[in-house]
Amino acid sequence: LRFPQKLWRMVESDRFPSIWWSEGGRCIAINEELFKEEVLGRAGPPRVFPAMKKMKSFIRQLNFYGFTNMKRDCQRSASLPEFLAEEAAAS
């Protein structure tokens, strides 16, 4: 799966409390410290993003796909309306 599909599945899953839809579902919110531990720091399978070990790499991928960073209360969130539209069309 490509990055956007993996991201979508991760945000939709209850398995990763470090990343979720913001209120209203227009942004992805990330608890950065927990995300580093449970997603990027995971040693064994199944690793969601096998090649990524640093938050900087994850943020770079978000930026590559057009997400923008919005800092609020020490958490990161990213928004991309096309991401929501694309996933809605695929469902």
Descriptive overview:
By secondary structure, this protein is an alpha+beta fold. The protein has one domain (3-90): Winged helix-like DNA-binding domain superfamily/Winged helix DNA-binding domain (Arc Repressor Mutant, subunit A, Orthogonal Bundle). Helix content is 43%, strand content 19%. It contains 4 helices and 4 strands, in the order αββααββα. It is globular. The mean pLDDT is 82.
Overall geometry comes to globular
User: Uncertain spans, ≥5 residues at pLDDT below 50?
Assistant: none
Order of adjacent strands in the largest pleated sheet: 1-2-4-3
Average pLDDT works out at 82
Q: Could you please say which CATH topology applies here?
A: Arc Repressor Mutant, subunit A
Structural class: alpha+beta
Order of helix and strand elements from N to C terminus: HEEHHEEH
Number-wise, the strands total 4
Portion in helices: 40-55%
Q: What count of helical segments does DSSP give?
A: 4
User: What summary fits the major beta sheet?
Assistant: 4 strands, antiparallel
Global Rg: 12 Å
Q: How many discrete structural domains?
A: 1
- The CATH class is identified as Mainly Alpha
CATH architecture: Orthogonal Bundle
Give the CA-CA distance, first to last residue.
15 Å
* CATH fourth-tier homologous superfamily: Winged helix-like DNA-binding domain superfamily/Winged helix DNA-binding domain
Strand content: 15-25%
